[in-house]
Design brief:
The protein has three helices and no strands. It is mainly α. Helix 2 runs antiparallel to helix 3 (83-104). 0% of the residues are buried.
């Protein structure tokens, strides 16, 4: 009887060892597949806006500056139809935008 019990225990242990080995192989295959996919497919980058008071104020100031820029461009285009004058005002506005931003919205306060 004890020989039979020892034989069954050895079979159970061998089966358990085979199951553990198969599970480890499966996990290794999954890890290799994940590593390959991670190299081939880049993860998406998420952009989050800052929600603090200063960030909201800066966004509002930038929107105001952009709307002012568009307003000036529209006025020049409507009043003077010259494409060269419109282009010149566009370039001048681009150069003047940082100055207006600094003078109108002093960000040190």
């Amino acid at each position: 009887m004890s020989k039979e019990r020892a034989r069954r225990r050895a079979e159970r242990e061998a089966e358990r060892a085979r199951a553990i080995r198969a599970n480890e192989e499966r996990q290794a295959r999954k890890a290799r597949r994940r590593a390959l996919l991670a190299r081939l497919i880049p993860r998406p980058v998420r952009f989050y806006r800052q929600g603090g008071l200063i960030a909201r104020r800066h966004r509002a100031q930038n929107v105001a500056l952009g709307l002012g820029f568009l307003f000036v461009q529209a006025i020049v285009w409507l009043l003077w139809g010259s494409i060269f004058l419109s282009f010149g005002v566009f370039v001048f506005s681009l150069l003047l935008a940082p100055v207006v931003l600094t003078l109108a919205f002093d960000r040190r306060t």
